Write the structure tokens for this entry.
Amino acid sequence: MRQALVVWLAAGLLAGCGDKTVQEKRADDARDVAMVERMSQAPFKPIRPQPLTADDIDRYDLGRSGCMFRPGNDGKAPALFVAQEDQGYVKIDGKLQPLAVKSGSAELPSGAHSTYIGLNTWIELVAQAGAGAETPGGGGAWPSRLVIHDSDERVAFNSLGQVSCASGAGG
């Protein structure tokens, strides 16, 4: 009987050696939750905005007061993004997508803003340091960066270019 008790206690002690502390269990749970979150996240897909055509600009009245982002250093390149006082516009997969102004975002000339929010994306216009060229009507043009974030806050598009602002008719 005594020998059975010793074997039972020894087995209990050995089994107890495998027990995890509360902190270890919490760490394991946190690691498991993080793994499930990573696995449920949509795979990364770059966003490729398409140039806005003259027809797009006329059809949707995008030439009114606001700012236009053009990639590269050519101020005459087709615009990829239009920022206006009330909305921003970008063309993705052949469809013009309106975006709402993020309240509290920095204001650009002509009433445009630096940040716009859509259903699946949000866009930032980041002005580069240095003075821009002044244009008639209180607008201007300066080096800038267009950054498009996906719904998971990842950078899906990032381009250097020029932003030009005007008080109407084509920016």
Summary: The first strand starts at residue 49 and ends at 50.
